[in-house]
Specification:
Blueprint: H1 2-62, E1 69-74, E2 80-85, E3 115-118, H2 125-133, E4 137-141, H3 147-158, E5 163-167, E6 175-179, E7 182-185, H4 192-201
Parallel strand pairs: 3-5, 4-5
Antiparallel strand pairs: 1-2, 2-7, 4-6, 6-7
Transmembrane segments: 29-52
Keywords: Membrane, Transmembrane, Transmembrane helix
Organism: Streptomyces thermospinosisporus
């Protein structure tokens, strides 16, 4: 009888010890869970702050000017030449160029298709600048340009590889021709300066990357 009581007491003691051990494990698990949660939340907070700062930095970059330096000098033939340095970095943010339309500078990694492509809506300057880096001539016009001239120039562009055309409402003159580092205003589609500009600057000596593609780029 005494042996049975001792056995029962021992069993109760073992059960109580097991309960205490289980409770201790549960407390440790709760502490670990809470600790892990704190670490995760802290990481999210730090990550969020970093993301906000990164986005702020991107915004600053988006508002930054092109790294090109210099100015236009007008030649006797009426063509303005950029005297200075034109940056050629690949960027994915908008660029504030010193002239409109731009004639070079930092640009998007993807060019606009310029195999005689005519765009009826404005295109991104950064893509068009990349096209000029490949040796393309960019024909631009605003709402003051005569429709007959626009149509005639579009027909010419469509027949000329390494050219592209698009409206640029912000330019000061009705019709302008641009190549890498060069630009001029023309009076209309029948202005002799148009053919001269094309002959000299389509894949001309000013081209930073002669022979580079004008296809397989971006199309509107």
């Amino acid at each position: 009888m005494g042996s049975a009581k001792k056995s029962s007491a021992a069993r109760k003691a073992r059960i109580e010890e097991m309960r205490r051990a289980e409770q201790a494990r549960e407390r440790r698990a709760r502490i670990l869970t809470i600790g892990a949660s704190v670490v995760i939340v802290a990481g999210l907070v730090v990550g969020g702050v970093f993301l906000v700062r990164s986005q702020s930095g991107d915004s600053d970059k988006a508002a930054s000017d092109d790294k090109s330096t210099g100015k236009f000098v007008t030649g006797k033939d009426g063509v303005k030449k950029w005297e200075g340095t034109l940056a050629r970095n690949h960027v994915t943010k908008p660029v504030s160029y010193p002239v409109t339309p731009p004639v070079g500078g930092d640009h998007h990694p993807v060019w606009m298709n310029c195999n005689g492509d005519v765009y009826t809506k404005e295109i991104n300057n950064t893509n068009a600048v990349h096209s000029m880096e490949h040796g393309a001539v960019w024909v631009t016009y605003n709402s003051k340009a005569d429709k007959k001239d626009v149509d005639a120039l579009a027909a010419k562009v469509k027949k000329t590889p390494y050219t592209l055309m698009s409206p640029v409402e912000g330019q000061k003159d009705p019709i302008m021709l641009s190549a890498w580092g060069h630009q001029r205003t023309v009076k209309g589609a029948d202005d002799p300066a148009v053919d001269k500009f094309f002959a000299k600057f389509v894949q001309g000596q000013q081209t930073p990357e002669p022979g580079a593609a004008c296809t397989n780029g971006l199309a509107q």
